[in-house]
């Protein structure tokens, strides 16, 4: 297995997470990522977990967020990002990260977990479905950017 432990991310991890995001196709400056990552690191409503190898290398990470439900007690959990470095894929890292975040969601009274995945990420779709997620295609998006 390509990791020794799954743990909460901290400030020292930030620069090592940027290349992992780039593997997903997301380019972000170190300054912008620091702001975004600090939101996750410093918030009780956000979870940012990393998979760390024995030598200290970060092999992947997962980010999630809690959303309070209005129609019943509890929360919904949303997976915002899951990435495993290319050389660490198919070694159980993604499943371990997902299980750890799902555990955090359960601890925070999540009634359901959702994740968005771009149409071209077929391997990710298979991964989520093999982990008990089902396809739900009722999503509407409106950009709020100028």
Properties at a glance:
146 residues; 5-stranded mixed β-sheet; single chain; Aminopeptidase
Write a structural description:
The protein has 146 residues and is α+β, with helices and mostly antiparallel strands. The protein has one domain (5-130): Gcn5-related N-acetyltransferase (GNAT) (Aminopeptidase). The chain has four helices and five strands. It has a five-stranded mixed β-sheet, sandwiched between helices. A hairpin with a 5-residue loop joins β2 and β3. The chain is globular and about 45 Å long. The mean pLDDT is 89.
Strand content: 25-35%
As residue ranges, the low-confidence spans are none
Shape: globular
Oligomerization state of this entry? Answer: single chain
Q: Which structural class is indicated by helix and strand composition?
A: alpha+beta
Q: pLDDT average, as an integer?
A: 89
Q: Characterize the main sheet.
A: 5 strands, mixed
| Straight-line distance between termini | 45 Å
Order of helices and strands: EHHEEEHEH
Number of domains: 1
CATH topology: Aminopeptidase
**Main CATH class:** Alpha Beta
User: Order of strands across the widest beta sheet?
Assistant: 1-2-3-4-5
By CATH, the architecture is named 3-Layer(aba) Sandwich
Radius of gyration: 15 Å
Proportion in helices: 25-40%
Strand count: 5
Helical segment tally? 4
CATH superfamily: Gcn5-related N-acetyltransferase (GNAT)
